[in-house]
Amino acid sequence: MGFIFSSRRQTDYVHQHAKFLDQRSGVYVGAFIFVLGTLVLIVIGMYIADVTQKKQAIRRNYPVVGRFRYQFEHLGEFFRQYFFAMDREELPFNRAERSWV
Description:
- This protein is mainly α.
- The chain folds into 2 domains: 7-63; 66-101, no CATH class.
- It has helices at 7-52, 57-61, 67-82, 95-98.
- The chain is elongated and about 80 Å long.
- The N and C termini lie far apart (83 Å).
């Protein structure tokens, strides 16, 4: 019966490792809260910057989310190359003419 621990040794083993896990999980929770708080502060900063700027109406009317338009517009070249029509094939207004508006 070498593999069976006595109840005293077993409880000491469990308590020793439970303390270690509690300390380590506290570090992970703290790091998660720090990262989450940092992301919230970044989004708040982006919101304030979008609402107060005067150049782009999309960003002023749709703060934070309006920024995705410009990223998708940039990625659109890649997607149109493989999936959609080219820049000047669409009717009645092609993509080049629509970017003027």
